[in-house]
Design a protein that fits this description.
- By secondary structure, this protein is mainly α.
- The protein has a single domain, classed as Arc Repressor Mutant, subunit A, CATH 1.10.10.
- Helices cover 63% and strands 11% of the residues.
- The protein has a two-stranded antiparallel sheet.
- Helix 2 packs across helix 5.
- It is globular and about 40 Å long.
């Protein structure tokens, strides 16, 4: 079975780019727990609504989150439930390889 290495590389690069920013990573982890409205996400993460909007646009562009219209508001969720499982698996692997990964980061709420 031949794989399309270029396409796979592109997909993983987009995922890596999305995770490369701590704010985007926190958004993905928050949405892993439950769908949310942008204003609630901004408050939870501690960023301005404008900043959050920019990060959500990036995550939508990467195909990782989806906007669900609800009247005059939009709720955000992970684009696919498997993404939540993938994030959990990725956290598990990182912590298995380097149990001190979060302790060394100095970031509040790293993991």
């Amino acid at each position: 079975m031949e794989t399309d290495t270029a396409a796979h590389t592109s997909v993983l690069s987009r995922f890596g780019y999305a995770l490369s920013d701590p704010t985007r990573a926190r958004i993905l982890l928050a949405l892993r727990e439950a769908p949310a409205y942008p204003s609630d996400l901004a408050d939870l993460i501690g960023v301005s609504r404008q900043s959050l909007s920019n990060h959500l646009a990036c995550l939508r562009g990467c195909g990782l989150v989806a906007s669900v219209p609800e009247g005059r508001r939009s709720r955000y969720e992970l684009a696919d439930a498997r993404l939540g499982h993938a994030l959990g698996d990725l956290l598990g692997v990182v912590l298995a390889v380097d149990p001190e990964a979060c302790a060394d980061s100095g970031q509040k709420g790293c993991c």
